[in-house]
Design a protein that fits this description.
Elements lengths: L1 H11 L4 H10 L24 E3 L6 E3 L3 E2 L9 H17 L4 E4 L2 H14 L6 E4 L14 H15 L4 E4 L12 H16 L3 E7 L3 H10 L3 E7 L12 H8 L2 E5 L19 H15 L7 E2 L6 H17 L11 H13 L14
Parallel strand pairs: 3-4, 4-5, 5-6, 6-7, 7-8, 8-9, 9-10
Antiparallel strand pairs: 1-2
Length: 356
């Protein structure tokens, strides 16, 4: 426990920066904070949700957004389609205005859901056809990436992609510089042609992300991990580059692939109340980071969406102060320790994201 106390002091000990992070994000520091546009200019605005500026895109995105994955979803076939449309509508009604689809089946599912409820204009659509992108050698040229983008857009009837963010090899640094340039050329072409509004990418390699941001101004946002264990290094942090270049940041794995939970998330699960509380604490924790635009958890049931709004409500009451209460919450600290112990073998790499 002593080691955890030291870590928390380090997390908070770089002056008032960490303590003020939540304040900056919420606009509580006045002139120092980005000025929100009128609520009419924010997609699917809901006063119960918080909104953050997505870096130099200058768009305002819900501080908790919808991740593409639907792990532990029990529905299949028509019931699955019905569930995704129900969750999409619930998200929009709750003020969640970004969905991140990172594989072909996710693009198909969410484009169908948006069409079903008839509200495409109310949401920012994040797009990655991951099976035909940078993780696979045959898709690492501008020509093939454009083929992937255009093919999936045609298949799903998407006239424009709001945020194209190709999924890159983990670690991204395994890409050659020429391959990196090919991806950037595809992004520049897609934006020029009006197929894509803003370009970014996902990677788990911080050094490579920083290089790409420095070298290529078209990069407006990144998608990379941020868990309930992540803390900013006092010096030399990855986040310094995001701040300097005004880069938006979506955080994946806020629950570490559900390792933070005891139950299975269903409405009748015996651990539902405890897991919902831990989820709120974890979301409040990651939102203390001023660089993070939004975590993007997978949301399966309507109560998951409602829980996101409860997390924002609790954040406003308890965390937008000089020292966010969630940083000292013993229940979250214990759950985060268990989360690290229970990480599946294939997710041990998340531990590389403890000090960033």
């Amino acid at each position: 426990m002593a080691e955890r106390d030291v870590n928390r002091r380090e997390f908070l000990g770089t002056g008032a920066a960490a303590a003020g992070a939540g304040l900056v994000a919420a606009g509580a520091l006045g002139a120092e904070a980005p000025k929100m546009p009128p609520k009419e200019k924010i997609l699917s605005y809901n006063e119960k949700m918080e909104y953050r500026r997505l870096g130099k895109t200058d768009q305002w995105v819900s501080a908790i957004s919808l991740g593409g994955h639907w792990k532990r979803c029990p529905f299949k076939g028509e019931e699955f389609d019905k569930n995704r449309a129900e969750i999409m509508a619930k998200c929009l009604d709750s003020g969640i205005n970004y969905v991140d689809a990172c594989w072909g089946n996710e693009i198909v599912a969410y484009s169908k859901a948006v069409k079903t409820i008839g509200r495409r204009k109310d949401i920012y659509f994040g797009f990655s056809n991951g099976g035909q992108e940078m993780r696979f050698a045959e898709w690492r040229t501008k020509k093939k990436l454009m083929e992937s983008l255009e093919g999936m857009m045609k298949q799903t009837g998407l006239e424009v992609v709001d945020l194209w963010r190709p999924t890159c090899h983990e670690p991204g640094g395994m890409h050659t510089f020429n391959e990196s340039c090919e991806m950037i050329a595809a992004g520049e072409q897609a934006v020029k042609d009006g197929k894509v509004r803003w370009f970014g990418f996902s990677s788990h390699d911080r050094r490579w992300i920083e290089m790409m941001i420095r070298e290529f101004p078209i990069v407006s946002f990144v998608v990379t991990p941020y868990t309930a264990k992540t803390k900013e290094k006092p010096t030399g942090s990855f986040f310094d580059t995001l701040r300097k270049h005004d880069i938006g940041f979506f955080g994946i794995k806020p629950f570490a692939s559900n390792s933070i939970f005891k139950g299975g998330s269903a409405p009748d699960d015996a651990h539902r109340e405890e897991d919902d509380r831990i989820a709120r604490l974890a979301l409040r924790y990651v939102l203390c980071c001023d660089v993070l635009t939004a975590p993007i958890p997978g949301l399966i049931f309507p109560h998951h969406v409602e829980n996101c709004l409860r997390a924002i409500e609790e954040r406003r009451k308890e965390d937008l102060v000089a020292r966010p209460a969630v940083l000292d919450n013993p229940e979250l600290a214990a759950a985060a320790d268990r989360m690290w112990e229970r990480l599946p073998k294939g997710y041990q790499w998340l531990k590389d994201w403890e000090w960033v």
